[in-house]
Amino acid sequence: MSRLQALHIGIVGACGRGSTFATALGQRSEQVCVQAVCDTNTGALASSGELFGASATYTDYEDMLEAGSLDAVMIATPMHLHAPQSIMALEAGLHVLCEVTPAVSIEECRQLVVAARRARGHYMLAENCNYRRQSLLVEELVRQGLFGTPYFAESEYLHEVRDLNERTRWRRRWQTGIDGITYGTHALGPVLSWMPGERVTRVCCAGSGHHYQDPRGDDYHQDTHVMLAQTGGGGLIKIRLDMVSSRPSVTTTYQLQGTEGCFESARRADEQDRIWLSSIHEGPETWGFLKDLESQYLPTRWREMFNAVGEAGHGGTDSLMSLAFLDAVLNDEPPPIDIDRAMDMSLPCLISQTSMEQQGSWLDVPDSRNWSAGSA
């Protein structure tokens, strides 16, 4: 596909999560036009159309696609709709930016990969945590060799959503109704970016039991799940997911260990991200602050983009992620989180659910690169 001069966008889920795309679209307003918005929330649809300056509004996603006026869609609907909606758009010849998670089953993953292989449009997973300042800075430090060889990482996603379950009922089924890592890309995505060339090849998962019930008296999934993951190169990753325990929210925390350095993210608002690199810091007990390395090591393009978009949308990460997609499509370049990298972040989590069914057994994780366009 040749470089696009103008990109006509449709946004589904525009009245909710999709509204966070507005800043990035405004940054590319000379090259991007929001042609249509779609949402089942009829009471807010008109104002959403005004926010984006959309030419048309829809309550039915297929109707929006069939209008034939789009080059790309940005999908921000409940997670069980992501794969079907992405596949429909890809089969219609459109580019796709899809919120996490990309799919809710291994079979959906396979169908999505096959659709992406056959498509003429690009697919990108909208994993915004990869676009945090800390994520991008650690990734650059790894790229420059300052961590040596990274061999261990861990991340936690600790976000109590019991009340949110009752307002967005799909979460009760897909996020807190299944044992295993149901919502893991925020945790796994960044740490994989710090282990270049690696993917998870096998996992096991265990839970802490049931201690909370929903308002109807039904058990949530087990409170805390921990997944251990081994990479093809022998690295080890630990992921903890907890969306029901009573506690202050931490959302995401990260650690990375390499042969020449380590990183630990802050856990509370009054803490700072800490780092130790053998080539920079004096002695093995001398911690430094990650932010002190930003001016020297965070690439200029990221600093400029953060300055341009501000702090709106998870500290600017939503906008940077969206801009990465728009620029890839406009320049006809592979998106940073393409279909296979999306699967690298997602398949281990889905396999962890099977591990839970098998008493925490170690199980192999399939490689989506082996799924061809003709394998459906």
What is the N-to-C order of secondary-structure elements (H for helix, E for strand)?
EHEHEHEHEHEHEHHHEEEEEEEHHHHHE
Kindly report the name of the CATH homologous superfamily of the domain at 128-299 and 336-376: Dihydrodipicolinate Reductase, domain 2
CATH architecture identity of the domain at 128-299 and 336-376: 2-Layer Sandwich
Regarding CATH, which class of the domain at 128-299 and 336-376?
Alpha Beta
- How many distinct helices? 14
Give the tally of β-strands. Answer: 15
Radius of gyration: 21 Å
Strand order across the largest sheet: 14-13-12-11-7-10-9-8-15
Structural class: alpha/beta
Major sheet, described briefly? 9 strands, mixed
Roughly what fraction of the amino acids lie in strands? 15-25%
Descriptive overview:
- It is a single chain.
- The protein is α/β, with parallel strands linked by helices.
- The protein has a domain at 128-299 and 336-376: Dihydrodipicolinate Reductase, domain 2, CATH 3.30.360.
- It has 14 helices and 15 strands.
- The chain has helices at residues 22-27, 42-52, 61-66, 82-91, 106-118, 133-143, 162-167, 170-174, 185-193, 294-297, 300-309, 312-315, 317-330, 339-357, and strands at residues 7-12, 32-38, 56-58, 72-75, 95-99, 123-126, 150-158, 200-207, 224-231, 236-242, 251-258, 261-264, 274-277, 288-289, 363-364.
- The strands form two sheets. The chain has a nine-stranded mixed β-sheet, covered by helices on one side.
- Helix 5 links the parallel strand 5 and strand 6.
- Helix 4 (82-91) runs parallel beside helix 5 (106-118).
- The model has no long low-confidence stretch (mean pLDDT 95).
